[in-house]
Amino acid sequence: MRAALLLGVDEPLVVETLTPEPLGPHDVRVRIDASGVCHSDVSIATGLVPMPPPVILGHEGAGTVLEVGDRVTRVRVGDRVISSFAPACGECWYCVHDQPNFCERMLDVAMTRHSRRAEGKLVFSMSGLGTFADEMINHEWSLVAVETDLPAEQLALIGCGVMTGVGAVLNTAQVVPGSTVAVIGLGGVGQSVVQGARVAGAARVIAIDPVAMKRATASKLGASDLVDPADGDVADQVRALTGGRGADYAFEVVGRPETMVQARDVTRRGGTVVIVGMPKFDATVTFPAYSMFYDEKRLLGSNYGSAHVRRDFPRIVSLIEGGSLDVAHMVTKTIALEDVDAAFAAMLAGDVIRSVIVPQP
Ligand code: APR
Ligand code: ZN
Ligand code: ZN
């Protein structure tokens, strides 16, 4: 198998031929058909979030099952699958309490190594996935089979960006019809929040991003109002659009303390603030104490869109097939495995919503 490896923080990725380990009883060998490049991959490559190299990056993938271990029951050879960066074992405390996004087997899955470099050393794969490759070996808990004819590029995005964004709206915040929703940060995840808000029946979706292309895309995908932070104080701009009150819900989808504070500022009294972005590992954020009580704003974290992946991946597939979610317009370009560094640069420059790797020649 070929995979793009991170060998050290801030180093370019290296595409190498690796030798897969024999399958364990619950392991599955998957041909990767497509993999999205997400901001969290960059955060690991740049050391913002620590993960020990050598590691195969990539956690937003879709593929086809090639081979299964003796005791695998969840998928069969030939199934189309979407990878989940939270395993859903189905049996731990969180899984049985309907919060499989916190599955207690996550660390076991992430720390199990499934392939070797030429000199024999085993390598980690991000979240037990490692989708920047042409194949991967996963625990069956990390895969969800879907029956659909949608292109792999779209299925891949369900594995992180679409699940995280749509899930933040439908699962975490449970936005009610007629609401006003503000979205700060319009990358692959933020565009999915915009679309999730539309699916939830939001009356107004205020999309905020300094990059014009991101705002234009949000407008195509369902935003009703666009805010450029360069045009003045963002909270003032949102209040001007909402009768002076602020939005009913605000979603932070950048991953920075400043925009978390801003998300709270653009929310009306009694409204709901949802933190979706993944910040630097040791960052902290400060909120005004008096207002925490006085303004009764609800502050919610959203981890993987509170995903229940075995329920939600097929549900998202249906929403795409029925035309309620447009994931095709989130795929800016398809690229080869060798182009991931260029895709990181394009993401940081604000040139793409998503680059998607198609590793098969
Ligand atoms: N205000 C509004 N938007 C901003 C600001 C700001 N001050 N600064 C940056 N942005 C925008 C960028 O222009 C970009 O469009 O935030 C967006 C971030 O998008 P991507 O880099 O494509 O990131 P994405 O993959 O969508 O992930 C967003 O969620 O999963 C996490 O780690 C991920 O924290 C990241 C966040
Ligand atoms: Zn991601
Ligand atoms: Zn579990």
Element layout with pairings:
Blueprint lengths: L1 E5 L7 E4 L1 E2 L6 E10 L2 H7 L9 E2 L4 E8 L11 E4 L9 H4 L9 H6 L3 E2 L5 E4 L9 E5 L3 E3 L6 H22 L6 E5 L3 H12 L4 E5 L3 H9 L4 E3 L6 H8 L5 E6 L4 H9 L1 E9 L13 H6 L3 E4 L7 H13 L9 E5 L4 H10 L4 E4 L4
Helix pairs in contact: 4-5, 4-10
Bound molecules: adenosine-5-diphosphoribose (APR) and zinc ion (2 copies).
Adenosine-5-diphosphoribose binds next to helix 1, helix 4 and helix 5.
Structure write-up:
There is one protein chain. With 361 residues, the protein is of the alpha/beta class. 29% of the residues lie in helices and 25% in strands. The chain folds into two domains: 2-147 and 327-357, Quinone Oxidoreductase, Chain A, domain 1 (Alpha-Beta Complex), CATH 3.90.180; 165-303, NAD(P)-binding Rossmann-like Domain (Rossmann fold, 3-Layer(aba) Sandwich), CATH 3.40.50.720. It has helices at residues 39-45, 93-96, 106-111, 152-173, 188-199, 212-220, 234-241, 257-265, 289-294, 309-321, 340-349; strands spanning 2-6, 14-17, 19-20, 27-36, 55-56, 61-68, 80-83, 115-116, 122-125, 135-139, 143-145, 180-184, 204-208, 225-227, 247-252, 267-275, 298-301, 331-335, 354-357. Strands 4, 6, 7, 10, 11, 18 and 19 form a seven-stranded mixed β-sheet that branches. A six-stranded mixed β-sheet has the order 2-1-5-9-8-3, with no helix packed on it. α4 crosses α5 and α4 crosses α10. The two termini are 13 Å apart. The structure holds adenosine-5-diphosphoribose and zinc ion (2 copies). One zinc ion binds at residues 38, 40, 59-60, 160.
